[in-house]
Amino acid sequence: MFGRRAPLPVFPPGALLVGGAARDWLRGVPAKDFDWAVPDPAGAAQGLARVSGGAAFLLDAERGYWRVSAPGGVQHDLVPLPIDVTADLLRRDFTVNALGVWADGRVLDPAGGRADLRSRRLRMVSRENLRADPLRAWRAARFEGTLGFRLEAGTEAAVREVAVDLGAGRLSMPAWERVRDELHALLGSPDAARGVARLEELGLLALTVPELREGRGVAQGGFHHLDVFGHILEALHQLLARRPDAPLTLRWAALLHDVGKARTRAVDPVTGRVSFHGHERVGAELSAEILTRLKLLGDDVRRVSALVGAHMLPLPATEREARRFVHRRRELLPDLLSLMLADREAARGPSSSEASRRAYARGFERVLAALEEQPSAPPPLLGGQEIMALLAIPPGPRVGMAARALAEAAALGEVTTPDGARAFVRAWADGNSTS
Predict the structure, then answer these.
(1) Does the keyword rRNA-binding apply (predicted)?
(2) DSSP state of 94
(3) I need a surface site. Which of 79, 83, 340, 408 has the fewest CB within 10 A?
(4) Beta-ladder partners of 55
């Protein structure tokens, strides 16, 4: 109907395939997440686990929900088959998800979802369904981006109404974890920048990452031809054009890299020149606050914050500076370079020139060459105990300072042997006396 259909999966006894997997089968798109309504969830889960070589486990004992995790990232969720299947489908969010497929290929379509699939139209089953779970407003924006559909006018109006009522407190905000998961699905799409712009158009960005909206209408000049908000979206677009496999943390860093600009904007009273001094530091702090609010893992929050805080570093002009750059930022590479390039490519204002772009490219080449030459940090030439004995000092911050100075010297090729390391540490101690 909409493309060459993939073969139907192996159905558990008496099962109905519902939701996204049914939708994707009709679209000819292979699925990895399957939702089943079955007479016996426990038995069906055990059977699927045996057939697939996966593992079955109980999700919700009270409601009888089961899950099977199968090889290849395939997941099956199984729930009891409702007495009234049609009524159950009509409680879903959008018509293209209110579909069911039986093992013989018969399709249940009580809301006209197949016609909407053909028209690539995203239409709510009902306004009441949308308001019953306001997270469905974010899901609408996500489906537009990931499925390539367009919201039907009445559904778009209802989504905007949900956003207004959430902002006014007439509806309750979904849990941040659920909002985060929708954002991650949206950011994971190739057209993530357009998805974020759509959140803004629908009134949902103000409820999610309002800090980004502070950049709307904030002109920059110089290397920039877009306001801060437009530049942020363009940087995300440029990143994904070059690194479609970019990890989620890097996508977040591109989205948030200039989030601190609106709060640091200053205008020179004499020249009228606009500046954003320290915006990377403020942006790093804001990024940590935003992502903590969205319940991201601590390691991810710290990485995004570090990338945002480092994105304005000057690129090295010499090979020695390139080795130092790699040594000091190794844990952020190569993602930091990808972020810096996306930022640069999104900026094409009056100060941008072919000569400046070539100079920037040469800096990148130096860093990449240094990273290729030394893909990992060299092993330490002296341990902490040796440094303490050499300098006759107890454990403390001074030992760490000496070790870090030695590690950088080794990374730069200035020290290559234990004897050279001992001489370096003595000289360092003489030049950094605490007396």
Answers:
(1) no
(2) B
(3) 83
(4) 69
- Give the Cα separation of 408 and 422 in Å (integer): 14
Dihedral in degrees, nearest 10, Cα atoms 101, 107, 113, 119: 110
Note whether 154 and 160 are within 8 A (CB): no
Query: Quick one: tokens of 27?
Result: 């679209």
Mean pLDDT calculated for residue range 239-263: 97
Query: Which position has the token pair 């605490």?
Result: 434
Chain segment 319-374, per-residue pLDDT in tens: 999 999 999 999 999 999 999 999 998 887 555 677 777 888 888 899 999 999 88
Mean pLDDT over 205-211 rounds to: 97
* CA end-to-end span of the chain: 82
Statement: residue 141 has pLDDT above 50: yes
Q: CA 209 to CA 255: how far, in whole Å?
A: 10
Lowest mean pLDDT among 1-10, 298-307, 393-402: 1-10
pTM over 0.85: yes
C-alpha 199/C-alpha 203 separation (Å) is 6
Cβ-contact 415, 379 below 8 angstroms: no
- Strand-strand pairing, 16-18 and 33-38: antiparallel
pLDDT-based confidence at residue 117 (cuts at 50, 70, 90): very high
Alpha carbons 70 and 68: distance in angstroms, whole number? 6
Q: Looking at residues 180-194, what average pLDDT do you find?
A: 96
* 64 and 41 Cβ atoms separated by less than 8 Å: yes
CA atoms of 218 and 215, how far apart (whole Å): 5
Average pLDDT over residues 131-158: 95
Q: Among 75, 11, 13, which Cα is nearest to 39's? A: 13
* The Cα angle at residue 228 between residues 207 and 344, in degrees rounded to 5: 125
Contact 56, 48 (CB under 8 A): yes
Distances (CA, A) of 380 to 152, 373, 376: 62, 18, 12
CA 1, chain centre distance (Å): 34
Tokens of residue 126, six digits: 């009902």
Residues 6+ apart with CB under 8 A from 245: none
Q: How far apart are CA 80 and CA 66, in angstroms?
A: 9
Quick check: 99 and 108 in contact, CB under 8 A? yes
> Above pLDDT 90, what percent of the chain?
78
Closest C-alpha among 394, 396, 383, 395 to residue 425 = 383
CA torsion 380→382→383→389, rounded to 10°? -170
> Which runs of consecutive H residues, i.e. helices, occur in 243-381?
248-256, 261-264, 279-293, 298-310, 319-329, 335-345, 354-373
